[in-house]
Every structure is written in structure tokens, then in C-alpha cells.
């Protein structure tokens, strides 16, 4: 007898048991039964366009993709009517698609059309292929569209409209010759396409295909078109006499010939903190494509331009492949033995002569968790200093501090699934669609398909602001005021969660008293947000059953970013939005492992697992685990990377070891940073390129990117995932964990790690929050969200049974309003906002190796509001000089309403000398994060006048989206000339 979770259905006379309410195609697949289908995809659902899955239910023909399993369902697929209907559906698809599979780059095993056609054993192509009146579109940066191969299944449209929700693609089934359209037109280039690759990933044939797959994806695919075309025509002529099966047999053999040459490796993206995982398809060192899979725990089939396409850097001829040593002002090649011996000797000499705290370590937010652990282990155990840090100092430490103050853990309160199911999502200082596009896609889908509400507060009108139910533009650096004012309004107007506050939160009355200055009138005066908007926002929050609040560098990179982050967490506590599904605070992590670098100990005040270095019991625990006396480990909080660079100038720091970080480009006030580096006695940089930072080094050690090694990353939602090597290290480069292990041995500590799993096992045996983490539990697509108990049970949603504080209660943390450290005046009358762009990452050291990305965004620029442009005589493309109190840069202007009034915006990853030639060393005194967003400037027109607009015509920002509900299959059905299978069609190429 079945229950609500399982059922028994009858399929072709046989009973099958399995989950209830599961799509029939998936239900059958779990029993090794393949119901033919092409348009159906597990992430897209039933599109009903291919007509290849017909079955009979109670004597009626029904598309099998629309059925879900339930008790008593009786399905017949082997009857003549259903079989004829399926074959008619396939015949119609083949009328729109020229079969030349053996010569096709996509015949690699995952061409759904080819595989389905072969499995159905189609005897002959009933309808002659009819060429469409369109050319193949090569205009896209990373993929092509061939209308002659398009079967009009609509997978790409559904993915674009309702998964990615970029809303670029459509199909007009009323046209005489329907095809996929970009913004209603026929070219990829110049449309709103953001090159996320969703459409290419789900295409069931070769109509949409990665350029990296063309033309050498198979043994016969690279032949010139002058030879390929006649060969196709000959085969098609022969097929009419011998039928399709022999030709299909050859293509099947070709497909299997290719398999041993293609390696499919699960990896985790090396870019932002979302933590997308996917398969990387390679032939030797050639990256054929990145292929997302439904099983990926974070992203499923989703990717962005960088994760899908920006991997040219892996095989860049500028990769570091051998150690370099500086001699007489120039670098020369060296052996590993010489380079590591020099590094070990000099670090020990400086430690012994000047003391351990004169050496600073910066761990990589792009290297693995295991490599972060070894970085801090060398610093603490061998050198004896806690001066170790990572790039979170530049972005997310203020957010972490705000969470430590209020709820106890320095990480996202839940997972992306919680963000998806929230009734209200609040985005503050986060350009989510460009900085964390896969999470943005989830939010856009939740809003479009399920009615989720969206509140956006940002000085800049980004895509998410355009989509918001309420968009508010606060004055820069005033977010702490409106957050506190909203909290006061919620408390004063009966919208607070009283039961939650009374039972789970401390300092309620003290906090409430601290809110006295934060009236709506005061907030309106300081933030310039109209009082009505403040009330509307407060009501949205107070009335929502569940709220997730996401914030990023627009909040943290201010002189009081820790206080503002605290205020945001306070606001969530007041409204009861922690500890239940669909709630919590989510500081968006910028780099792929910036969360993990901090988690695993690259912090000046924390051992791995956020255990305080200043606590004697904690020190004793780590000393015992590492086999030394406690006195060997320092109790003194070390210097962070911001302090290290400053202290280099005074010789308080004499040596630095920097791994995979572009500190010379990313730290504030470039002039002073470079001056500090020049004062160092000894500097080691471990990286995959000779970065701007590496140019100051005495020794450069060539490391490997993630696709050449094994390890784990931790994403923004605290999710630990394994990645695997897709190819061997390039040249004589080495994985960071091997370099650090060998260096430690040369410094007298032979740890003997032979595999990164041993490093993880060591961490799990010491740090409480990782107690149950191991590589077996992370095998394949499995993952764990810390904290993880010893039995392997992880914690996707935090605070369900109390907060991470001494008494298990959260803390409402009182705050006072403090003015920003830098503001406009009569000389510097504008404020310079800044941030990442979708196409770029980390000083372009990786994305800048991709010619296609350079073509999309070839120039650095500054955004100027229309009103300011009119006032100052600035036009699109005008050369301008932007000057701060520290320096000047010259670049071209983009006039856009993305910015307003006297606020400018500049991308942070482009340009020489870069934006930090303008930023200053004023910083958050609590966490030492530079106030990058508090940069007052002036702007002036340059004599060279106007140049070409910085954003080329093909950039997606010029496109006009065409939102729709997805594939309009009903339009096709309602056409007078459409006939339901198994009836034959007069014009099958149209459907």
C-alpha cells in the first residue's frame, strides 16, 4: 500500500514503484527506462514542443513530459498510435535540422537529438530537410546560433526567460520561418545577452554551441567547409537509398570514438563566492566547454559569463611555469630547490634577527581551504606570528564583524535555497546581477514565477534596482541611519516579532533606547530618502513572513562599514528574521574562497574555525595538536594586510609572503602601497602570473589554478565542495599546498602531506566547526555546510536551536551615528562610487586573458549622470580627468542614468594605474577595511575632446530585453496549419 511519498504505476503492463509526484520521464529513468524526449529537461520541465514523448493514458494520446507519477497511473508507450505519434514528432524535428552527426562538433555523447533519434531507430527521414532563410550567427562573443540546426524546442528560451531570467530570447511561432530571436532581432551581438551560457547548456543539438567546441571537437569536425559541404550532400543522397540506420550507426561509432579523448572533470568555479560547480570537458589541455549539471548543489544548470567561458587564462602563454629570483633588478629563472631554499633561509633569518612579527603573510582567497590552512600554519607554528590575513579585509570583514556582534557566526545565515523561498529579499549595496549573477538569477526567478517581493537600496540603479518593487537611492555612507530608523519604526508600530525578541534576544531595551535619535525625520535629513519611502520599506519588512537581507561592498567599504553591517543584522533581529527558513543575513562573498580563507585561519585574530588566538585554552589546544609547547604560539593578535602594507613603510614589517592576491592593485592608495613594498627587505609572491604585486617580489613561485589541482572551496553560504584536477600543472608550476608543504620541510617542519585530504583530516580533528568534514563526504557533487558535527551532519540553516553566543541568545547591538571620514567639499564636489562589472574579476589577471571579454569591455570608463553631464558639457565618450585628494586618472565617460546627481561610478578592475590611485587610507577603525566607497573627487573635461564610446555597441548594456512567459507553444498549436501527431504535416519545418 502506497503512502503520500511513494506510488505504484503501470507502465507497458509492468508495475513500477517509486516517488509520487515525480515527472514521468524522471520516474522511468530511475528504472532504466528511457521514454523518448528532446524538449524536456529536468531543470526546465515540460515544454511540449518536440512531440517525441507521446504515450497513451486511458486511450488518449498525451505528451509524456506532462505526466507525473501517482498511484494507479497506467501508461502505454508500446502501442502503435503512441509510437507513430513519437516518430512523427521526431520526423518534424529532423525536417528542421540537417543531420551530419559524424561531422558535427556536438556528437560528443550529450546531443539529446542525436541520441534520441538513434534510440528510436528511425528508418528514414520522412520529411526532407528544408534550409531556413537565415545565416549562422557568429556575432556572439562565445557561442554561435545556427538556425538551420534549430529544432525550435524552446529550451533556450525557457532557460533565458525563467531560469537565468535575463529575458533576451524568444520564438515567434507566428512567423513564416520561426527562429530564436535576441531582443526580438536576429543577432546575438548588440542584444541584452549577458553571455551566461544557459541557452548553450540546455540546447539539445548543435544549434547553439560554444565557440571553443568549434571546429576540433571530433576526429572529422575540423575539415574545411569546402570539403565538409560536398561530403554532407553525398551522404544525404546515399541515405535516401539505404535508409537512416546505417548512417546513424556510423555516427554512433563516431560518438563512441570520441569518448576516450574527452575528459569530464567536476570542478568548482574559480571566480566569485557563489560556488558554482560543473563539469569541465577537456581534450588534453584544450578546454572544450564547461557543462553544468542538474546535480550541482548551488547552481544546477546555471553559470555566468566567467564561469562558463572565461578560462583562457589556464593556457595563457604568460602563465608562470618556473620559479623566478630577482637579481640586480631583474628576474631570472631558478630551480625549485634554489628558490625554496632561498625563501626558507631568508624568512628564518629575518625572524631570528628582527622577531616573528616583522613577517606578514597574506593567504589567497582563490586558493583552497587546505592551502589557506597551511599558510596560517607556517605563519603561526614556524614563524611564530599571527600576522596572517586574506582579501576579506578589503571587502567582507565589516560584515563578518556585524554578524559576530549580533548572532555569532561569521557567515551566511542560510543557503541560496532560503533566499529563493523568502517572501521578501532586500538587496543593500549589492549589484547582485553583475557580481553574483547565479544568485541573482534565483532571486529574479522567485520574483517572476512565485511573486517574491524585492526591495533594493543602492546609490546606483543596477539591474536588480530596475526589477525591484521598491528602489531607494540613499545618500552614500548613510545606510546605518536608515537601517536604524526602520528598526525603530518597526518597534514603535507593532511590527516587531515580540515573542522572538523576548525569548531569543538580549539587550532589547538597551538597543531600543539607542534608537531614540533615529527618527524618520532625522533619517530623511541624513539619507535624503523621502519619509514615505522609509515607511513603505519598513512596512514591507514588518509585514513579510520571511526576509533575507543581502549586502556587499556597497556597505562594507566605508569608514563605518562594521557598524552599518551590525545595523542591518539588528534590523533582521527586530523583525524576527533569523533561525527559520527563508530568513537571515547574507553578506555576499566576492571571491571563490574568501569565506574559506577566513574559515581556515587566514585571520590575524583567529585560528581555523574562528577560535581566538588570544585565548590561552585555545592556544593550548592548537599547540597540542601541532605537537609543540603552547609558548611556541603567540597570544598576540597580529597585523592584518592593511596594517602590514602600512608597516612596511616604517620597517615594522620587513618581509611579506603573498599568495594569489593582487595587493599592489587592490589595496587603497596605490602610491603608498607601492612605496611600502619597495621598503621591504624580502618579499615572496606565489601566483599563476607575474601580477602587479609580483613585480615587487624578490622570489616568485609559480602556482597552479584550481583546474590543475585538488582541494576544497567554501562558498558564500558556508558550503564546502571538492574540486578535481582537469589537467596536469602547466610547465613546472605546482599546487600551492605542495609548495607550502615543501617550504615547511625546508624550515625544519616535515609535515609529509601527500594529498590535500590529509590536510582536511587534520583540520577536522582540531577545529570544532569542521569536525565531520572529510573528502569521502564531499565526493562528487556532495557538499557540507559548516558547522559540521562529527557524524557528518551539517547545518544549512543556522540558529534554528539558538545563536552562537555564550547563552544561546542573539544580541541587539546599540550603535551611534558617525559621519563618514571623507565627504564632498567645494574643491572635490563629487563622490566616486565603484565596484565590479559582470565581465571582470580581480584586476583582470584572469578575465583579462580572454580576448572575447576584452572585446566586450575594452576600455576603462567613468559613469556620469545625465544631469551632471549636461551641467559639465560631458558627452558619451568624452575624455575626462577624475581627481581625488590622492591623485588623478584620465579616462572616457559613459553618460547613463545608472548613476544620479553628483555621484560617479568607476569599475574597479580595469585601468592603469587603477582606481586605487584615487582612494585613500581612511578606513573602518574596527576592522581596518579601507573606505574605498568614500572617495571625493572632481571631474574636468580633457582637451582631446570626445572619443569612441567606451562601451562597444555589442555590449549587453545597450540591449533591450524582451520579457515573456517562456515558450509560447500554444501559439504553435493554434495555428491553422498545425496538426497534432500522428497526423502528417505539410510544413513541418515551421513547427
From TrEMBL:
Belongs to the complex I 75 kDa subunit family. It is an enzyme of class 1 (oxidoreductase). The keyword Transport does not apply. Signal peptide: none annotated. The gene is fdhF. Its cofactor is Mo-bis(molybdopterin guanine dinucleotide). Its EC number is 1.17.1.9. This is Formate dehydrogenase subunit alpha. It comes from Stutzerimonas tarimensis. Residues 81-121 form the 4Fe-4S His(Cys)3-ligated-type domain.
